[in-house]
Structures are given as C-alpha cells and as structure tokens.
Write a structure and sequence with these properties.
The complex is a heterodimer of chains A (340) and B (353). Chain A is α+β, with helices and mostly antiparallel strands and 340 residues long. Chain A is built from 14 helices and 5 strands. Chain A has a 5-stranded mixed beta sheet with strand order 1-2-5-4-3. Chain B is an alpha+beta fold and 353 residues long. In chain B, 30% of the residues lie in helices and 27% in strands. Chain B contains 9 helices and 15 strands. In chain B, helix 2 runs antiparallel to helix 3, helix 5 runs antiparallel to helix 6 and helix 7 runs antiparallel to helix 8. Chain B is elongated and about 75 Å long. The chains are: A alpha+beta (340), B alpha+beta (353). Chains A and B meet through helix 11, helix 12 and helix 13 of A and helix 1, helix 7 and helix 8 of B.
C-alpha cells in the first residue's frame, strides 16, 4: 500500500469508490452460498452486507494498530450463515472448500480457541475471496461467519450488553451474561439430539426422518428464489403428502434429481415466483398460499413428474385441491381436479 | 408450452393486453365492434389470474399451422412482431376481422389480444371471451337496519374458474418471423371439444398441424405399445378394451390426459404419462379413426403356444370372455355357447387386427 493510501482519508475514499464492486461481490457470494447449501439440502438463514461507511470510518479511527488498514479490515463485506444444528457449521465449511468458488485464505475457529474449562462464543469465521471480476486489481475479501441460532442469539445480546460503551456493567452482571454461554452449548446439543430422534406428528420415526430431510432439501432450494420460510405446520402437512407420493425409503436418491430439476427450470421458476410468490400481489389471495411456501417447489416437481400419485396422496392427507390447483396450472401436465 | 420431455414448468407472462367488445353479429349487416382506444392496464392480481387461466387452457390446445392466404390475421401478428404495427392498432383490426367472420349465432363478448412470453420466448395470444353469469354476496344493512347478506346478479363476468366459454389461439414467435405460424387453438365451448371452424380457419387462418387420421394412428400405436409392455394380462385386457372403447366413442378428440383420467388405474397413471406423453404431443388430437378402423372391432390375445383368442369388446365387457393370471400361467376363459367350428389359415403371431 502506498504512502497516500495509509492516510485515513485516502482509505475512506477508496472504500467509497469500491462500494459498487463490493455490492456485486456481496450478491455473488450470497448466490454461491445459496447454491452450495441448496445442493446439499442444508437449511440455513443467509445474509450478507457491505460494511456501512460510518462503521468503516469508526474502525479506521479507533483501531490504531493497523499498519495497513485497507488490508487488515477484512470484514468490509460480511456474510453470515445461521444454522439449526451445530454439526452443520463444519458441514458448510467442508462444502465451501469442496466447491472451490469461494477461496478460503484464513480460518478463525473460535471453538478451538477455548480451553476445556472455558466457555465463550464458538462460531466459525472463514475469510474468503469473492469470485473475481474482469477488471479487478485486487481480490475482494469477505468475512463469512457460520454459527448456530443459539450462538447468534448470544453473540448479538452479549455484544450489546458487554461492549456497550455508555454503560459499564458491574462484575455480577458481566458474570450473568457469561453464564448464558453455557446455555448456548446445552441448547445446541439438545437441538441436535432432538432433531436426530424427532418422530413425525403421526408417523413411524423412519418416515418422519425422510420428511424432515425432504423439508431441509426443499427449504434450501427455495432459499435460492425467496427469502421467507413459510408456515411450518403447513410445510409439514404438505411434505407428508409429497413423501407419500415419492413412495421411497431413502430421500437421498431424490435429492440430486430434485436439485437438477430446480436447476433446469430455474428461469421459469424465478418468473413464476415473481408473479405468484410471497413478494407478489397474489400472496394475499388465500388459494395461492402454497406459492409462499418452500414446499411449493417439491409440489411443482411432483405435479410435473408424478401428478397422479401426488393428487392421490394429497387427498389421502385431506388437503384441499384448491391449494394445489394454482400450482398445477403452470406445469405442462394436464390434471383434471374434477376426477375422483 | 415448453418441451414436455424435459419436464418443464412453464411461466407464461402477459406483457401487454388490449380488450375490444365484440357484438352479436347480424346476418348481412356490417357491425362495428366496440374498440378500445388504448392498451388495457391490468393489476398484477388480474394479470396473475389471467396468466393462470390461459396456461391451464392451453394444455388442452390442439396444434395448428398457418395456411397461406386463408386469413389476414397471421399477417397482423407478424406486423406486431416486426414492429410494423403496434399491438393496439393490430388488435383493432383483429377485432374488426373477428366481428365480420364470426357467425350470426355467436354471442357478444370480448376479444383479448395479448403480447406474451412463455419461459421468456415471445408469443401472441388471441382469445374470444364470452359473457358469463354469476352472483355476488354482499354484507350490508337492509331497510330495517339489520345486517344481512344480499345477493347481486352479475352478467358481465369473463373467464371465470372452470369457464368453458372461450376460444384461444396462441402463436409463439418462430425462429424466422416470416415462417408459417404454428401454434395452439383451444375451444372448450364446442361440443366434444371440437374447435369452431370459423375461429380456426376463417379467423386464425390455420389448419391442423398433423392430419387427424395420422395423429390418431400414432396415438393408437403409442398407447398399444404401452399396453403391450404391461406384465399383468388382466390389466392388458382391461386397457386394450379401454383403447378400443375410446377410439369407438363419439368424442372427436384424443388426449393423453383425458385417456389417463378416464381409463388408467391410479398406480399406472404417472408411468403412462411419462412413457406415452413423451411420444405424443401434449396437445389434444383431433380424432379420425379411418386408418385404424380395422383394429377396433375385436380384442385379440396371442399366447406363447400359438393359440389366438379373438373376442368382441362386448363379450369381454359382459364377462363372457375373462382373463385371469395365476401361478401356472394365464387363463382365458370363454363362457359361451359354441355355434360353429371352422379351420383358419395360420395367424401371424403378435399381429393384432
């Protein structure tokens, strides 16, 4: 970095000038993460932001230990994946490495920094480079945080309470906050254990596990198209019918077929969700409820490839035709809902 | 509407739309339609609903192709694509053409002309929509001030769910805009799913893409092949009977979807759609049995030993001839009175009809 670039004003100006490129990098990273997670059927909440100028300026002014602030402030672009299960953190790390589009150049594993008698924030931070663009003169770093819901909750709360500059907490209160960390580990452990053993509302455990896996699969693929998560109970009921229509013991073989179907039809699906999905005006019409649900993707695939099996299963599960019919209109297979 | 073999969902989107009023025609009198003077602005909800209705309707479409010099309509469609005309101007001319070509018995309605895309590819849509009737319930206070639901009669509804009073012509933009137009026509209103002659020929200027007798023969051959691939002889018999029944029925159209719903067991339906649907057009076929007439009189079974059993569909339907399968083979039972016995020439194995 040149002499002039070490000057705060020059760094700030550079940050401003890079903003459009950072925005494209942010979008690109988010798309890649969504694709990676969708392919693996991992349901995660993904967000990404470009650091706002005030925050960047603050860091620049307050941290006096930066020799090269432009390079050393690595969270100019930040992305975050919040997962349900603690083991998904490592799974995502592995997937990013295997995929290779986001090159990892540094890893901060907070779990490894904690001694056996220590408790604390235990998320995984990966420093990656955004995909290169023509005309780039340097690589664009992105800090990716991967954490569970509980870790995220603790991190947010503790950050606000422990590091709030206006208020100095006394030792007892500070200890109270740190005690909550123990609950985070217990929480994550119990969530994993319960998901592993979760039986369905009225089904044998094996079938329920299939439905759970299917739900994660469709939710991950749906996140490529829409941000919302839908109504969980409706998802469960619909996916029981889908699982029934698929009629197979192992959804793993279905995952790849389904992923390819989403990929092949992505352009059409994007247009359909624009017109009928949760962001559309049709979202306020009750019969179009499934268009705002993640399982709509699986239902569309079934309506295309196994419509009769789906319709029979749908009716066996006492779900109304009027929900299915607005989806069926846009598949190439003709279905006569008046037939019993 | 997409390539059936690739299992595509289809996104039909209306880019622009114009509606014109078509009046009831009067014999030998020039009637001017009630023309709109601008494109129609529609809300996203109306657009979404129309798109869904049209997409659904086109699944019952029959494939058509432009016949040169039959109508001026294809030329006007091209003019819009080539930007020689605006959608509004072309649609006004189209409304006048429809007004003069529709027969005197045709009721009044609307001509809907729309610039559309299907999966991003441009297309042109023309639809004649006729008035429908319905009622609407409104909660309001009566003369005594009590809250009640009152009913209002509506006779100006169009394109309602389950509507059958419309005709649609749809043309995707060909690779070369000057090539003859190919597309789909739908007429739910016509008896037996025929298509009103005036709409297809006089107005759209199109004939069938495939000669009906050839399309019918292809339908029969494809379904026959699927039936022959069934392992269960009882099912083979049942479906054979269904095929003959469908071919002999008074309906003047054939479709994979219709055949599935009418005759195929639920557990076989998706397999039928997949295998038969890949070989046949998704569109409805106009039935003409002239080339397959000789295969519709009887059901025939060929067995491994060279035995051939031939029965009339009625005999199978009435249970005079039954087929059942057991561990030691298939049993074909004829429960009847023998009225004659003769010798025949050698049958060619596996040749039905």
């Amino acid at each position: 970095m040149s002499e002039s670039e070490s000057d705060s004003d020059a760094v700030l100006r550079r940050f401003r000038e890079a903003a459009p490129r950072f925005e494209r990098a942010r979008e690109g990273v988010l798309v890649i993460l969504k694709e990676i997670l969708a392919a693996a059927g991992i349901d995660a909440t993904l967000t990404a932001r470009v650091k706002d100028i005030d925050s960047f300026r603050g860091k620049l002014e307050l941290r006096t230990d930066y020799a090269d602030p432009w390079k050393q402030i690595t969270d100019k672009i930040g992305a975050r994946a919040i997962v349900h299960r603690a083991d998904a953190v490592d799974q995502i790390h592995q997937l990013i490495e295997t995929d290779g589009r986001l090159r990892i150049y540094d890893i901060t594993d907070k779990r490894k920094l904690l001694g056996e008698k220590e408790l604390g924030y235990s998320g995984l931070h990966l420093d990656v480079y955004a995909p290169a663009e023509e005309g780039d003169i340097e690589e664009v770093p992105v800090e990716l945080q991967i954490r569970t819901i509980a870790q995220h909750a603790w991190s947010e709360v503790s950050h606000k309470l422990l590091y709030k500059p206006q208020v100095e907490l006394d030792d007892a209160d500070r200890r109270a906050i740190w005690r909550l960390v123990a609950l985070v580990e217990v929480f994550d452990g119990e969530v994993g254990r319960v998901i592993d053993h979760m039986p369905g509302p009225s089904e044998p455990a094996a079938e329920a596990e299939d439905a759970t896996d299917l739900i994660s699969l469709v939710a991950a693929n749906y996140s490529l198209l829409e941000e919302n998560t839908g109504q969980r109970e409706l998802t469960w009921r619909s996916m029981e019918a889908v699982s029934d229509a698929l009629g197979m013991d192992d959804v793993t073989s279905y995952a790849e077929t389904f992923r390819l179907w989403v990929e092949d039809n992505f352009g059409s699906l994007r247009a359909l969700y624009d017109d009928y999905g949760p962001r559309s005006d049709m979202a306020t019409v009750s019969d179009y409820v499934l268009w705002s649900q993640p399982e709509s993707l699986a239902l569309l695939e079934c309506l295309e490839r196994r419509p009769s099996a789906l319709l029979a299963a749908w009716r066996r599960h006492s779900l109304p035709d009027r929900w299915l019919s607005p989806l069926a209109a846009h598949t190439t297979t003709a279905i006569d809902f008046s037939q019993q | 509407m997409g390539d059936r073999s690739s299992n595509m969902v289809s996104a039909l989107r209306i880019s622009a739309i114009v509606l014109h009023g078509i009046k009831k025609s009067v014999r030998e009198a020039a009637i001017e339609p009630e023309l709109s003077e601008a494109e129609t602005a529609i809300s996203d909800q109306v657009r979404g609903f129309l798109q869904e209705q049209i997409a659904s309707a086109l699944k019952d479409g029959r494939q058509i192709v432009e016949v040169p010099e039959m109508s001026t309509v294809p030329g006007m469609v091209r003019a819009v694509w080539k930007k020689d005309s605006t959608l509004l101007t072309a649609s006004q001319t189209l409304a006048r053409v429809l007004q003069t070509t529709q027969p005197a018995i045709s009721p009044e309605g609307l001509l809907m002309v729309a610039d559309v895309t299907v999966d991003g590819a441009r297309g042109f849509l023309l639809a004649k929509l006729e008035h429908e009737k319905g009622t609407r319930a409104v909660r309001e206070k009566n003369d005594d001030g009590d809250l009640v639901y009152s009913m209002q009669f509506l006779d100006n509804l169009f394109f309602t769910e389950g509507s059958k009073v419309y005709k649609i012509g749809y043309f995707p933009l060909p690779d070369n805009v000057d090539d003859p137009l190919e597309g789909l026509v739908v007429d739910k209103q016509a008896a037996g799913h025929a298509v009103a002659h005036y709409f297809r020929e006089t107005f759209l200027g199109c004939g069938w893409k495939e000669r009906p007798e050839l399309a019918t023969e292809r339908f029969m051959d494809t379904v026959q092949k699927w039936i022959d691939s069934r392992e269960d002889p009882e099912k083979r018999t049942k479906y054979q009977l269904a095929l003959i029944t469908e071919m002999q029925s008074q309906r003047n159209s054939l479709s994979v979807a219709g055949f599935v719903d009418q005759y195929i067991d639920v557990e076989d339906r998706d397999n039928f759609r997949r295998t038969v649907g890949q070989a046949l057009p998704s569109a409805t076929i106009t039935k003409d049995v002239s080339l397959v007439q000789g295969r519709l009189a009887n059901v025939r079974w060929d067995t491994r030993s060279g035995t051939v059993v031939i029965a009339t569909p009625d005999a199978v339907e009435e249970g005079i001839v039954t087929v059942s399968s057991g561990e030691d083979g298939t049993e074909i039972r004829v429960r009847d009175e023998i009225t004659g016995t003769t010798g025949t020439g050698r049958f060619r194995p596996g040749q039905s009809g």
